[in-house]
Structure formats: C-alpha cells, structure tokens
Amino acid sequence: MERPTSALVRVVPFFYGWWVVIATGAIIFLTSGTYFYGFSTLVDPFEEEFGWSRALIGGAFSVAVLAEGLTAPVAGYLADRFSATRLLMVGVLLIGGGFVVLGQIQAVWQLYAAMAMVAIGVTLAGMVCWVAIAHWFAKKRGRALALMTGIVATCGVMVVVLAALISFFGWRSAVVMIGISQIAICIPLALTVRRRPEDVGLLPDGEGHAPGQSLARPAASPKGESAAGKKVEHKGLTVRQALGTRPFWLLTLATALAWLGSMALIGHLVAFLEESADFSRGAASAVAMGIPFGSLVGRLSFGWLADYVAKRRLLAAAYVLQGAGILIFAMTDSPWQAVLFLIVFSTGWGGAIPVLPALEVEYFGLRAFGGIGGLLSAIATLGAFGGPLFAGVVYDTMDSYRPAFLLMTFTTMAAVPAILMMGRRPGWTREAASAPVA
Q1: This prediction's pTM
Q2: Would you say 158 and 28 are in contact if contact means Cβ atoms under 8 Å apart?
Q3: Nearest CA to 271 among 263, 259, 262, 280?
C-alpha cells in the first residue's frame, strides 16, 4: 500500500525537500516560540501568584535547558534510525501536553516537571527536523537550513500571542490554549515529513530519482532500506570517532560558551527590561519578539553564505555579534539602545543557527549526524543550564542583572578563538566530495 507522502510528492509542484523544509519550519515555529522566547512573559505572573524568587523561576528554564541537553543524544540516535513521522508526533504530543500540564501547576516542582516535559518534546522534534533537512539537501544544505530557520525566526510573534492571551484569559488558560493548538496543527504536518529523499524514491537537492526507484513504489523502511532493497550508506564519522577529534571538543566548548550568555539573556529579557530599564511589560515583550524576527536577517544571510564561505569563520563572526549584543543589552536603559541590541545580537543569534549544523555535517558527515549533534548539544548544555540560573542568583543577590550580563559578554567572546582553532575541514570530507557518484 502506498504511503501518504509518496502521493504528496507527485502533488507538490516543486522538489519535495522544500516541502519538508516548510513543514518542519512550521512545526518548530509553533512549538518553540512560546517555550523558548515566551518563558520570560511568565516570570512576573509566577512571582505574583506564588511569590517565588527569580532564581527559583529562572531555575525552571535552566532545568528545561538541561532536559534538552540530556535528551539530545537519545533524540539524535533515534532521528538517525527511525521514522521521522512517528518521532515528530511523539515530540509534538509531549510539547502540547506539557503546556496543558503547565496550566495546572500549584508547586515549583510541578513547574520544573512541566518545563522538562516540553523541553524533551522540543528536543526530539527539533532533532528530527535538523536530521531530515541535512539528508534532503547536500549542495543546497545551507540555503535549506536558512529557509527553515527563517520560518522559525517569525516565531517571535508567539511571544506577543502568549502575552495577549495572558492579559485576556490569565496565564493558566493561555498556556492550555497554546498546548491544544500545537497538537491540533502540528500532528497533520508531521504526517507529511520523511527523514530522507530515498524514502520516497528521490535524491538530495532534487537531482532525479534514486536508482531503481520510482514515486509509485512504497517508501523506504525507517531502518534505512530503500525500495530497491539496498541500504543507503552515508559518509562520515561514528560518534566514537568524532569524540576522538579535536574539532568536536573545540566546537562543543565554543557552543557552551555562547549558550551561557544567550540563554541567560533570553530567559530574563522581559524581567530585566521591566525592572532595570523601566520598560512596560508590553514594550519588553515586543523586544523579546524582536529577537527571532530580527534574527531573520542573520539566518537567511549566514545560511546562504554557508554554501560559499568557510563555515567556521561564519560561526565565529556570529558569536562576535552575539557577544557585542549582550554588552549593549547590559547597558540598555532607553528604547534606542534596545533597538541597537536587537540589530546586533539578533543577527549573530540568527546567523549561528543554520551555520552550526552545516558545520557539523562538514566536519563529521551524515553517518551519525543526529547522534554526534545530540552529544555535542548535551555537553554544551552545561553552559546553557548555568546561564539563566546564574543571572537569577546575581539578581537576587545584587538586585540587578547588569553584572551577570557584563560577565557573559566575555564568555561569549571566548567562543570565537575556539571556533577558529578547529582548522580546515578533515581530509576525509574532501575525499568524499571528490569521489564519483555511483
């Protein structure tokens, strides 16, 4: 019996890989915006209703980031081997269900549990999306990642949607409504996604059909067998081999340093602007929304350049912009400074998003892309975990976020030399690139 995606391949008037980009981008848009950027809109409601400290509330975001990191290697392993559709559905159900649970909390441990549930779902769904696009494109991988992350960039509107729902219905009803909407919209999208072009008889970048296959034949099994019965092999390192390389550890260190500052900033952005810069909640939420929207320029431009320019230099440039943006943010006390912060930080933040996975493929290949990327994320999460928690502790101790953000300017900048020390891409990738296609 023919699978639904095979029929859709014939209906879609362009290469089906671009539909995968659109569908995965839409899923991340609807699930990550309210979780990642919207958390800061819940800080004040939690404090007002429960009387929790900022460190305690910020700890929930840190726990969520930690849950992402711990889940990432498992999610990567699964994404390399099993059905993208099924994994996406599980991820979406965890995310939507987590928001529904969040609307029922009465104790801080329940907040932490709900945020961890959402984070695990976001990690699983996100990893599947990254792996799928990495497989569907080769020559145009940077542009495909740029388009997908460009769609995701507009998820900042979900911050305003969440803030509006909180104002009209209260925070409990708002998060429940968000969770139900995510499930209703994202499950149908998940049904249209396949992990690799070979699963529907195509080749990467839309360069014809896979040998011995046609669109009328059944899709490949999730374990890597093509319709013709041949296992599809991909060049690259195993997880164990990647762990033995210098570039893996340098890239992991750089990612951890960069995430330390950016996660702290995003987790406390609204609260900082309200109290340290005297912004209204609406204005502060608008700035939070501006980060993903502003990152659109970085995502599209850096992603496009990644197909033509050295990716490690692009990532280093992105981290320079992030560090400079955090410095500007630490000094912000007026609207024009907030605008300058958005221009600088958002460009760097957005630029790093498509370049990082493209750089991972360049150095480590597709053979265990999900597993290697998941392990890298898990280790780098130590930085992401510490950022929001550290900023909350500094605020509770000094009644100001500024010292924390000033320090994190330097940690972010320290990621730059680590990236540049990775050196040129490994020799095996150049050999694979020059090898004839069978």
Answers
A1: 0.71
A2: no
A3: 280
